[in-house]
Amino acid sequence: MTGKSAPRLWEIDHSYYCSESNFYAPSNDQPFVRYRSWSDFLREEGDSDFDLNLLFRWDWLEGADHDLPEFNGDENYRNGLLMLYWMGQRKGLYRWTAVEICRADEPEVRRFLEPRLAHLMALWSPLIPKETDQ
């Protein structure tokens, strides 16, 4: 970005929510996992295949609007929840992951998200208009 810094991940409020329920899964068999820390998540799922586990959305949640604690000024205070939404393309499985996070995790979270954004964009690249010489 030129002259402008990227917004912090916890400042972004997506315009529409993503369901934390798989309509096609029985209520007691929802495809959901919660991790107690970013490092726990990375240990289990950090190297997952980009196609088999297509990450299509994320939400960084904090504060009373999400029934979570408010930020207390300590970057290492684990008051946030990172929601990751996946499509298992081979099986047609929609699943989601919740990761307990703190603001100090943001640089690592960005490093995780950025290549997955590039992968998602590559899937749509044939529809992106190309500049032509005039």
Tell me about this structure.
This protein has one domain (28-125). Helix content is 20%, strand content 22%. It has helices spanning 38-45, 106-124; strands at residues 32-35, 54-61, 80-88, 93-101. It has a four-stranded mixed beta sheet with strand order 1-4-3-2. It is globular, with a radius of gyration of 17 Å. The model has no long low-confidence stretch (mean pLDDT 90).
Task: Note the main attributes of this structure.
alpha+beta, 2 helices, 22% strand, 134 residues, 4 strands
Structure at a glance:
With 134 residues, the protein is an alpha+beta fold. The protein has two helices and four strands.
Counted by DSSP, the helix tally is 2
The proportion of residues forming helix, as a percent range, comes to 10-25%
Strand line-up across the major sheet: 1-4-3-2
Number of strands: 4
C-alpha-based Rg, rounded? 17 Å
Distance between the amino and carboxyl termini: 27 Å
What about the largest sheet?
Answer: 4 strands, mixed
- Reading the helices and strands in chain order gives EHEEEH
Low-confidence stretches: none
Total discrete domains:
1
The chain-level mean pLDDT equals 90
Class of secondary structure makeup: alpha+beta
